[in-house]
Amino acid sequence: MREWTSTVGAGQLARLLGPQGGAAAGRRGPAYRALADGIRTLVLEGRLPVAARLPAERELAAALAVSRTTVATAFESLRADGFLRSRRGSGSWTAVPAGRALPARGLEPLPPEAGGTTIDLGCAQLAAPEPWLTRAFQAALVALPQAARTHGDFPAGLPALRAALADRYTERGVPTMPEQIMITTGAMGAVGAICRMFVPGGERVAVEQPSYANVLQLFREAGARLVPVPMGEGLSGWDLSAWRHVLGEASPRLAYVIADFHNPTGALADDERRRGMVAAARASGTVLIADETMTDLALDAAPGGRPRPVAAFDHGGSTVITVGSASKSFWAGLRIGWVRAAPEVIRRLVAARAYADLGSPVMEQLAVAWLLTEGGWSAALEERRAELRGHRADVVAALRERLPEWEFAVPSGGMTLWVRTGGLSGSRVAEVGERLGVRVASGPRFGVEGAFEGYVRVPFIVGGPVAEEAAARLAAAAGLVAGGAVGAGLATPAGYIS
Amino acid sequence: MREWTSTVGAGQLARLLGPQGGAAAGRRGPAYRALADGIRTLVLEGRLPVAARLPAERELAAALAVSRTTVATAFESLRADGFLRSRRGSGSWTAVPAGRALPARGLEPLPPEAGGTTIDLGCAQLAAPEPWLTRAFQAALVALPQAARTHGDFPAGLPALRAALADRYTERGVPTMPEQIMITTGAMGAVGAICRMFVPGGERVAVEQPSYANVLQLFREAGARLVPVPMGEGLSGWDLSAWRHVLGEASPRLAYVIADFHNPTGALADDERRRGMVAAARASGTVLIADETMTDLALDAAPGGRPRPVAAFDHGGSTVITVGSASKSFWAGLRIGWVRAAPEVIRRLVAARAYADLGSPVMEQLAVAWLLTEGGWSAALEERRAELRGHRADVVAALRERLPEWEFAVPSGGMTLWVRTGGLSGSRVAEVGERLGVRVASGPRFGVEGAFEGYVRVPFIVGGPVAEEAAARLAAAAGLVAGGAVGAGLATPAGYIS
Known about the structure:
The structure is a homodimer.
Chain A: E1 6-7, H1 10-17, H2 31-44, E2 52-53, H3 57-64, H4 68-81, E3 84-87, E4 91-94, E5 119-120, H5 132-148, H6 159-171, E6 181-185, H7 186-198, E7 204-209, H8 213-221, E8 225-232, E9 237-238, H9 240-250, E10 254-257, H10 271-284, E11 287-291, E12 320-325, H11 326-329, E13 336-340, H12 343-352, H13 362-373, H14 376-402, E14 416-420, H15 426-435, E15 438-439, E16 441-442, E17 455-459, H16 464-483
Parallel strand pairs in A: 1-2, 5-15, 7-8, 7-10, 10-11, 11-12
Antiparallel strand pairs in A: 3-4, 6-13, 8-9, 12-13, 14-17, 16-17
């Protein structure tokens, strides 16, 4: 079996390396080292996937206007460091050194009661929007007696909620019948059910690089072979030619895409990219999971209007499966998510549910149905968005003040900043931050095979003095990591207060 | 690799075949045929597992006091029918013919709204116990505002519910700390989480034969290799020597046992068997899952007192993992279950949850915590048990009147009758019953590899005229199946009323 899963052309690599062929501005030293460093950085930041075959030395030398010796020496240096592997006749492909920290696990939420004085930015979650949560359950209590007369098992979900969600999709321009909706245990339950159905044994799954950590881990646990497609720098997002290339070459069974305020980068795909990705998926026989968990969290006015839902570009109706959730739009404590798909896919998912979680809680479904049909959802969202705008401004200002060397783009929606930690290891920053009373998720959790060591994800879910304190603690962690003074001497600050 | 997974001794097989060596009472015909029929019946009813190596012909002849030719001819006949496979040097082992209906899928609950006039005995579920459900959610609403101020992600469960459940185990004689409890999405979510942790790739799992259909299917989907351990006839239940034998020989990673009002048979394991199964599991390094879903449903007074929880016999604390649920005790619409295990097992299960369902709904947990601590659980259970006693009497009487040739034992608790359909195919009865407006689960769903074709499961969840009507429809289905008059001529009775 070949050991590379995608290829990168000479022109494409030259563009990725930038005008200086990978050399940082003002950098001095031999040309081969600049090139080797540039390629290594692209791999570690996930912009060049792991197991991507590089162009031949001669081709790359021509594209970069350097000597072939420079390229050969750079490749040799990358091989020695474990960032490149080669085999006669197969060429050379990117790799990650064996000892390098891999993105081991998903994000394990810190239980609120264990929080103490820790500022928990590990999860991108907010408190519930009141009084809407209470009102929703008051209304659900009124509807409960009727549901209580049934045995309570609704494997596809309560009819009222399925209908309310179908109407919402129809309003958003994607005509939908209730038979196209299944209620799940959050978006994770939805992705899990789709994964069990389409990835029974080691199939390929294309994912954005970076992508949502817990879903990456869910796919890994299911035995999927992840094929990363690099996201562009900052908020530039999806590279259509890379998606066409990877889908065409790897023909993955599934592709998982967060086109609306991508987690962690915050990028938003425009209509053209949505259309292009759906077309590429259709052409390669790939089922495209569109995770719309963040879709309600548009924080800035969009001059040209919001892009259409990914499913709107799926004219046959059999390429896109949409996943939604109340967790980010409303509250994670509800655990209500859903799938929108073709009726026959829903039927299969519902049948398979008998030996998974059987169904979703009735009371929660009544509450969400009320929110959707009686206006509570929109009203709560208005407040939520205003809250997030404030938090975003506060977190951005605090980070810029305390950590001016950290770089990030400010997204127009969602809940997260994807932050370059100025050359520091994001894993070490997260590790030390945990001990200093601030929890953030390190970059590698969002990457495939060790990428993004130089990143952390910072959700803007706190504001005011808490945002300032979080940035101060992160700055303290960064200082310790930069100084290398981290080790046995640092006590775990169980009762840390600052 | 060897093709048999357990062995049966000559004496054990002779006992299973009974005094007449397998011949039905009053049966005439050659001795070899009686023996072949006896073995076939044992396989189809699951009392002899599939892939069990039979004793050598000479040994079995001696134990049955028949000629070796009789045994050889019986084996030859079983081989011809596909119920036995042999290989020189490996002996002969039981099998199921290829064309035989296998227990394909789990029990897919019929959504209540689709019920129409169908009497749904497919799921062993009851309507919610009111006013307790409403009261529990009223109380939960009072507690909600405090929880609403958190982000709502409690991967291990709400502290109040973990503590209430720990106290309950302690009261039942199994001292338990809250750190030993994780809240899950029903008992299925609990078994699924345990399965993902202990059966990552094709490990063996010992199961009762028969066992709960949906859990069998969950294990199959996870790639487990099921090793069935036959239950005794009627309510006689667990054969300790068979358990010791199978666990000792197959050393399965997990064993799954429903010791309290077993689903589907209704059997109840006594203390001696519980102690013996735990000891056997410890000896073979097997983790024993004790599913206590039915434990609250003791309907008859136990003269010698109730057996102790299975976990009470696990002195090291690392052999037994207990699974519980509100689904049968209270209402399936809640979707709250739990795991009780050693703290380190709980920690691992909680960490893994980040890439499964993340957590359980807060409101449901508040409701169950109130029920457990404020007496609602016990009060509702009293009513539930009284209701089930009445239903049990009605269903038993109706079946005996309408289907006197169907045989079953009346269990002292739980919700189900395990019914021998008088020589008819349980799958056909279920199929025709569905069209006649009564849904029951066929026997093979509860078995491994095609066993229990001659059974259906009938939950006693209806009473009075509904129970009578259900029995009448089942009798009509049985009549059609017996007459062989089932086929294209029978219209699907969409609006069937009788």
